[in-house]
Each structure stands twice: as C-alpha cells, then as structure tokens.
C-alpha cells in the first residue's frame, strides 16, 4: 500500500457513499448540522438509485468559509461504506482523493483504513458505526469537539440515556481516530465566516415555506418521486399550520380536488412530477375555463414515461407551457435557488388568486433534494390577503367589462350571491351557452388575462455584465442558476453575463433588449433540446447561437459547466 | 312565480329529450331540497359531464359543473373546506361508474358527507347510444355492434362492499318515492348513494320505462336494511331489482369528522386566518 499525505485548502468536497438503507443520511445530517453550527457555509446534494435497499448512492457535502451554491465533480474526501462506492464513483476519484473506509470491506489502492465497525462494536454494536464515522470526519475538518459532542447529545436526547451516551462515546472514539491521521492529512477550509442567522434547508422545504407564506392550507397529491418531498414536508407541518393534507387516488383526482378546494375558498397546492402532471392536463384546462385558481409544483425528473425516477432533468417546460387543451393563461415559475423557492412559492398563490388561473412551479430532483445555507427568508408580518369578494344578489361570476379580463371572484355559501362555474362555455352567470357572441366575448376575456399577466411578470434577472457591458449572454431557468454562477466565478470573464428566468412563461416583455446587446447567445439547460431556447426564439425572433445541454440524469457540476462554456464561447476579448 | 327557491321564476331552456326520466328526477330533487328547508345559498350542486350532469344548470343554487367523471374529488374538497354547505353530486352511470370509477371507489373509502344521485339509464345519452358500465350484456349499440360482452357494474353491491352508509335505488317515474330517498340521502351523515333507474327514450329501446317497471319491485316493510351481509345478498338480485333503501348504517365517521383539521377546531378551513409568526418560527428552526 502506498504511503501518501493529503493536503486540502479552501472549499472541501466530502462524498459519502453507501448502499440504500446503510445510513449515509445519518452521517450527512449530523455532519452538515455540526458544520452549519460552526458557521461554515454548507451545500449538500445527493444522487440515489430507484431502489429502497442495496445499490449504491452518494451524498456530496461541500464545506466552505461562506455560502456556496453549486456541486463540484472533484472529490477531496470519499467515505466509502460499501465496496461498490469505488466503481460507482471511479470517474471522480483521482490520486488526490483521500479515500476512507474499512479495509475488510473496501478494496482500493491507497485506502486509508478506518475501522468504524470494530470501534462501534467496542462501544456497543455496529449500529454506532455511522456516529464513529461522523466523529472521524469532524476531527479531520477540525470542527470543535465540544460542539460536536453537545450536538450529538441533543440529537439523541429523545432516544434514552443509554443510546445517547453510547452515541456520544462513539463520536469521541471516532474523533480520536480522525486526530490520529493528523500527520497524514491536513485540511484547511479557512476561517468560517457564514452568518449564524443563515438557515439551512432543502429546495422542497423552501417551496413549502413559500406556499405557506402564500396562504396554502390544503395539499393534495399522489406520491411520485421527486415531487413527494413537498408532500411529506407539508404533512410534517400540517398540525402547526392547520393544513388539510390528503393523499388522493390518482393525479386526475388530485387536480380536480385542488380546483374544488379553491372554488370553495381554500388555497390548495398539488405536488407531482412530469408523469403525474401529464394526467392533470385536462384539469389545467378546467382551471383556465372556470377561472378558478390552481397551483401545481412539478419536481421534474428525466422522461419520457417512467424515465429515471430518482434523477434530475429540466425536460418538462414544453409540457407545462402546452398543458391543457384550448387557449387560456397559465403561468410557469421556476426557482433558481432557495430564496427564489420561497419567493415564487408565495407568488404562485397570489398570482393564481389574482389571475384566477393555473400557476405551475417547476423544480427538479436536484433542486428539491439539495440543501444548503442561505440568508433567512423574510416573512411578511401581515398574512397575504385573499383576493375574493362578497357577492351580493345578482352576482355574476364571469361579469364582463374589466380590461384585464378578471371578474371579481366570490365564494359559494358566504352570501346570497350564487357562484356558478361551468366547464362548458358559459355566460356571465356561469350557465351553459352556445351563443357565438357570448363565446367570442368569453374567449377574449380569457385572452386579456394573458396580456395582463405578461405585464405583471417578474422580469428575468441579469448576473454580471453590469450596465449592459457584455458580449456573450447565457440564458437559463430553474436550477441551473447555481452551477452557472459558480462556473462564471471560475472563468472570471467580464464579457459574459447570465440572464436567468424565475418567471418563464408567458415570456416576460422586455427580453429582447437583453438579447440585442449580445454578440452571441447561449442557452444552458438540463434537457436534450433546449426548451427555453426554443421558447425565446419563438417569442422574440432572436436566434440562440448555441445550446449547452445536459440530460444524463445529473446536474451540471461547476467544473463541467465552466469547461463547456469555455469550449462553446468564442475566445474572450474586449467588451 | 315558483314557490320553491331552488326553482327558477322563468322556465329554464332544458336540454333533455322530451319524455326523459331526468325531468322526473329534477322534480324529485327540487321537492327534496324544498322539503328539507335548506337555505338556497348553502347548497352547492357538483357534477361532471353528461345529460344527468346538466342538472345543476336547472337548479337555482351555486354549482360546480366540472369535468367528466371528476365530480366526486371536487365535491369532497368543497365539503371539506366548507362543511357548513350541503353538497349534492349528480351524474350519470358513465360519469360516475365509468370515467369516474376510481373516484367513486375512493369516495366510498373517504366517506365525505355528500349525497350522490346517479341517473342510471344503462346507456350513454349525450354521446348518442353507446354502452354504459351498467348496460346489460348482449345489448347492441352503434359501437358494440355484436352486443355488449362485458358484465355490468353492480353499483349497489359495490357500495355495500365498500361499507357506504346509505345505499338506495329508485325508479325515476316514482317522483315521491325518489324524493323521499333523496331527502334521507342528504340528511345522512357521510356518503349516501341513490342509484336512480330511468328510461332513455332516445337511445335505450330495451330498458324502457315498461321494462324497468316489470323488472323491479319495492322492498317490503320487513326488510332489514341494517344487516350488511343480507343487504349485500339483496344487492346481488337482478331482474327483478329491489328498490328502496338496501343498506343503511351510521357507524362510520364522515371524512370531515375524521380529518385532523377539524378534530379540535370546527371553524371551516376557509374561514381561518393563519398567524405569520408560526411560519417565521418554523423558518427560524432551520438556523
């Protein structure tokens, strides 16, 4: 076995790899929580197979002096809990990777033997081996031992004294094991300076908190990865927030139930993935026709059909935009980071209420499952006021005459005004009609809302190229935001700017102005065809010069994206 | 001027064929709503698509006329959000048992406090004469040109198997009898189903009013509707089909009584205002 020493400075990438059910989540949650408490910036993302036991999964944890928003390919420290970890991650392991594992389990030239299990057995059983591993890693990255010990005590406080004390002992033994490697391994992330007020949460939690800020009080869904995490998050908080959470028999029932809930005065959220959303298509159309709000969160995964159930992709923008038959307004939002998840989760509810139309929140597996440290969300002390009226006698649900096509929405059973909604074409009172003049007026009323929504759109956000000083413009939506910003930081080129669309559809007015200034335009998307690029080309008439696409089921890493941007763009030059 | 708040002062332009059983069912429904003394604004009629599903158009109340087959999930939510409202779902055999079959099964499981009136004419009307899930075996239609080969759904046996607390069947021409069943169904706490046989004068030449009259009989006063096993056996009887309340039980909690949001607080969900400090606290826990 070769003797090597390892030295790391700056951001540290730790990868934990094991079989499903082996407990890498325990190690991950303890380690990230201790690092966060030590004021490090933390970013964690996982990739997992579509199976409950076995296989090989991994979690990547980036520790930094401050906030960090993208994954890397590089592995500094690999904790291998299964022999499969080495072949599973072979493309990312280099001779600079410190590989930790048990020599009885993991075969790797250069493995640093970490007898987690035998130490755990001394403590009281192999069940403690994950805590031993946590202790060892904490020592290597120089987290304060008292802080780690106190935090471990708190985590296991509810499990009884014996379990708690044995875990603390396991942590201490692991910590000693980590210290024993001091001569061989040196890690210097730098002095942590993240704001202790920062919060650390998943994308699923950010979207859920946003929905709650938007007044969500009804959640219904049929479980489908990766959309289920929002369902379980909401269920977990259901008591605290008076939430009605219902698992429904199928996605068709889900969508119709949510629209019924909105009609009666609730603020309902559904959560699903592309395949489930495909089943909601007719209900999208119903929401458009009866002008009753509908909010759907779609965590995308690779398709077509069942595709890769636990992997990530941005392949459902076209589906979202074209969902539902007939002409009607639908708004598509896509958060690029956690704070936008909160902002847009909240906005989705207000927009659905205001425009009495469906609003779709597009995320993806990478987005919902990743978690990291970010600035705390600002909660408005005033609850968001519902945009409903009290209908008096003679109330007509679809009263014409408003230039933006929006008729005041009343709720049934609140006053003597009857609230009649019909999926057939209807008159102002909501009753079926085939009168061509009424039909025309109702179509135009619904179309007017599309124009009104475009005027209300959240404009795309420009990063870099301040004052319009850029030659090359990158376009992106949703979760590519973190990787693009990280890649641009690596490239350090002032002639490249990035235009990110939190509001994707209908495409906000004013996009052309950004495109006109660029010498070349590239779209960066996690799909195989460039669905945003096609939308921008169709809506603006501008040509997109190139598409940097990824569709292998994984998110771009910082390094990969930096390389691909460099290769795609003409050489840098004067702006 | 009608003396029934649920009827219109001006006669509505009704889209049903002359002689359709739907007219009688409407009379029964209007009578039931009036007799129960429901307040007009506290009723929501919910339906899907089909001739029967047009019923809300002809009742002077709030309504949600949604998609084919999807009335029950919408109605379940409406009742859950506003339990102070009376919710009546009306639809045809194709709407409720065909396109909406899965929702029907799961509505039986959830047991929302909804009255479900199914117009069962054993044929598709609005799409012009194809087989329905309740069409008798062998009937020829423009699509099933060699005759229907699948067995019909037995909605009564299905509902009793699912332990629905009020399961009844009537014949549309018995306006008073149907009205009385509707009143009991609306008053029942939990899901209540009345399957109403009706002739389709345009598309079903086999199961005519005369056929229904000759192939049904009223359950007698000595029939015990509280015995579930006996009720199930009764529900399996065909030609003649028994009419009346096949099964009745008030054992089960309704969906609205069971769900956590109403366990401690009876204020309708839609009337509650959440304190934003709870959210601020939950976010602060992520520090």
* Percent range of helical residues of chain B: 25-40%
Number of strands of chain A: 23
Main β-sheet description of chain A? 8 strands, mixed
Radius of gyration of chain A: 26 Å
Which regions of chain B contain 5 or more consecutive residues with pLDDT less than 50? none
User: Element order, helices and strands of chain B?
Assistant: HEEHEHHEHEHEHEHEHH
Oligomer state of the chains in this structure: heterodimer
Q: Average pLDDT of chain B, to the nearest integer?
A: 97
Bulk shape of chain B: globular
Question: Which architecture of chain B would the CATH scheme give at its second level?
Answer: 3-Layer(aba) Sandwich
In percent terms, what proportion of residues of chain B is strand?
A: 15-25%
Widest sheet, order of strands of chain B: 2-1-3-4-6-5-8-7
Radius of gyration of chain B: 20 Å
Largest sheet of chain B: 8 strands, mixed
Unreliable stretches of chain A, pLDDT < 50, 5 or more residues? none
Describe the structure.
The complex is a heterodimer of chains A (575) and B (287). In chain A, the strands form four sheets. In chain A, strands 7-6-5-2-4-3-16-9 form an eight-stranded mixed beta sheet. Chain A contains 19 helices and 23 strands. Chain A has three domains: 6-188, Pyruvate-ferredoxin Oxidoreductase, domain 3, CATH 3.40.920.10; 202-374, Rossmann fold (3-Layer(aba) Sandwich), CATH 3.40.50; 461-568, Rossmann fold (3-Layer(aba) Sandwich), CATH 3.40.50. The mean pLDDT of chain A is 95. Chain A is 36% helix and 20% strand. Chain A is an alpha/beta fold and 575 residues long. The radius of gyration of chain A is 26 Å and the shape is globular. In chain A, α8 (228-236) links the parallel β10 (218-221) and β11 (244-247). Chain B is globular and about 70 Å long. Chain B is an alpha/beta fold and 287 residues long. In chain B, β5 (166-171), α6 and β6 form a beta-alpha-beta unit. The relative contact order of chain B is 0.14. Chain B has a single domain, classed as 3-Layer(aba) Sandwich (Rossmann fold). Chain B has helices spanning 21-36, 71-81, 93-99, 101-110, 155-161, 175-187, 209-214, 228-235, 255-258, 276-284; strands at 43-47, 62-65, 86-92, 115-120, 166-171, 192-197, 216-218, 241-248. In chain B, α1 packs across α6, α3 crosses α4 and α5 (155-161) runs antiparallel to α8 (228-235). The chains are: A alpha/beta (575), B alpha/beta (287). At the A-B interface, β9, α7, α9, α11 and β17 of A face β2, α2, α4 and α10 of B. β17 of chain A pairs parallel with β2 of chain B.
């Amino acid at each position: 076995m070769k003797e090597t020493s390892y030295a790391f400075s700056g951001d540290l990438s730790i990868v934990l790899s094991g079989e499903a059910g082996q407990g890498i989540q325990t190690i991950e949650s303890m380690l990230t929580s201790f690092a966060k408490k030590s004021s490090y910036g933390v970013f964690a993302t996982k990739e997992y197979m579509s199976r409950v036991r076995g296989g090989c999964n991994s979690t990547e944890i980036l520790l930094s002096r401050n906030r960090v928003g993208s994954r890397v390919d590089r592995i500094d420290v690999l904790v291998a809990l299964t022999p499969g970890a080495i072949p599973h991650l072979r493309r990312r392991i280099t001779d600079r990777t410190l590989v930790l594992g048990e020599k009885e389990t993991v075969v790797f030239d250069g493995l640093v033997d970490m007898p987690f299990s035998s130490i755990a057995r001394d403590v009281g059983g192999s069940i403690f081996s994950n805590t031993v591993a946590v202790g060892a890693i904490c020592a290597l990255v120089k987290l304060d031992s008292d802080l780690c010990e106190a935090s471990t005590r708190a985590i296991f406080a509810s499990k009884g004294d014996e379990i708690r004390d044995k875990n603390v002992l396991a942590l201490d033994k692991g910590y000693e094991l980590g210290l024993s490697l001091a001569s061989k391994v040196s890690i210097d992330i730098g002095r942590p300076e993240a704001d202790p007020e920062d919060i650390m949460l998943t994308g699923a939690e950010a979207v859920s908190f946003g929905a709650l800020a938007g007044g969500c009080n009804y959640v219904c869904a049929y479980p489908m990865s990766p959309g289920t995490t929002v369902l379980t998050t909401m269920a977990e908080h259901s008591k605290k927030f008076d939430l009605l959470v219902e698992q429904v028999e199928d996605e068709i029932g889900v969508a119709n139930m949510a629209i019924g809930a909105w009609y009666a005065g609730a603020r309902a959220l559904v959560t699903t993935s592309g395949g489930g959303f495909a089943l909601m298509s007719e209900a999208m159309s119903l929401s458009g026709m009866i002008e009753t709000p509908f909010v759907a969160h779609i965590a995308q995964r690779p398709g077509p059909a069942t595709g890769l159930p636990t992997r990530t992709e941005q392949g459902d923008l076209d589906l979202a935009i074209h969902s539902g038959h007939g002409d009607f307004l639908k708004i598509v939002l896509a958060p690029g980071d956690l704070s936008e998840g909160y902002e847009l989760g909240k906005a989705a509810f207000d927009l659905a209420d205001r425009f009495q139309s469906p609003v779709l929140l597009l995320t993806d597996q990478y987005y919902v499952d990743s978690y990291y440290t970010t600035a705390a969300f600002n909660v408005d002390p005033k609850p968001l006021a519902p945009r409903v009226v009290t209908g008096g006698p003679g109330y007509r649900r679809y009263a014409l005459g408003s230039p933006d096509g929006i008729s005041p929405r009343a709720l049934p059973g609140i006053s003597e005004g009857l609230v009649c909604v019909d999926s057939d074409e209807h008159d102002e009172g909501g009753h079926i009609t085939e009168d061509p003049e009424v039909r025309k007026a109702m179509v135009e009323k619904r179309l007017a809302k599309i124009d009104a929504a475009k005027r209300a759109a959240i404009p795309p956000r420009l990063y870099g190229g301040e004052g319009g000083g850029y030659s090359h413009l990158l376009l992106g939506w949703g979760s590519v935001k973190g990787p693009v910003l990280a890649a641009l930081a690596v490239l350090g080129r002032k002639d490249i700017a990035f235009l990110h669309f939190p509001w994707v559809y209908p495409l906000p007015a004013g996009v052309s102005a950004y495109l006109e200034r660029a010498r070349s335009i590239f779209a960066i998307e996690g799909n195989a065809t460039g669905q945003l690029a096609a939308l921008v080309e169709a809506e603006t008439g501008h040509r997109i010069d190139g598409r940097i696409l990824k569709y292998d089921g994984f998110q771009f890493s910082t390094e990969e994206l930096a390389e691909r941007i460099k290769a795609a763009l003409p050489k840098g030059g004067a702006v | 001027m009608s003396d029934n708040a649920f009827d219109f002062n001006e006669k509505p332009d009704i889209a049903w064929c002359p002689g359709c059983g739907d007219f009688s069912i409407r009379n029964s429904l209007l009578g039931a709503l009036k007799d129960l003394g429901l307040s007009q604004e506290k009723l929501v009629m919910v339906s899907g698509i089909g001739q029967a599903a047009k019923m809300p158009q002809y009742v002077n109340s709030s309504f949600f006329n949604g998609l084919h087959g999807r009335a029950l999930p919408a109605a379940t939510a409406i009742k859950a959000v506003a339990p102070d409202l009376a919710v009546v779902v009306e639809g045809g055999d194709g709407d409720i048992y065909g396109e909406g079959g899965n929702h029907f099964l799961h509505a039986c499981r959830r047991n929302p406090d909804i009255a479900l009136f199914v117009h069962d004419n054993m044929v598709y009307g609005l799409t012009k004469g194809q087989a329905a899930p309740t069409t008798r075996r062998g009937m020829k239609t423009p699509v099933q040109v060699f005759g229907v080969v699948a067995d019909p759904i037995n909605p009564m046996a299905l509902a009793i198997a699912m332990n629905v607390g009020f399961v009844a069947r009537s014949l549309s021409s018995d306006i008073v009898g149907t009205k009385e069943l509707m009143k009991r169904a609306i008053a029942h706490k939990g899901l209540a189903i009345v399957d109403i046989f009706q002739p389709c004068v345009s598309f079903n030449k086999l199961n005519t009013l005369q056929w229904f009259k000759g192939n049904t009989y009223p359950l007698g006063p000595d029939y015990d509707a509280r015995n579930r096993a006996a009720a199930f056996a009764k529900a399996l009887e065909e030609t003649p089909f028994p009419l009346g309340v096949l099964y009745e039980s008030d054992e089960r909690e309704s969906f609205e009584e069971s769900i956590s949001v109403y366990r401690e607080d009876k204020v309708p969900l839609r009337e509650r205002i959440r304190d934003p400090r709870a959210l601020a606290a939950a976010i602060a826990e992520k520090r």
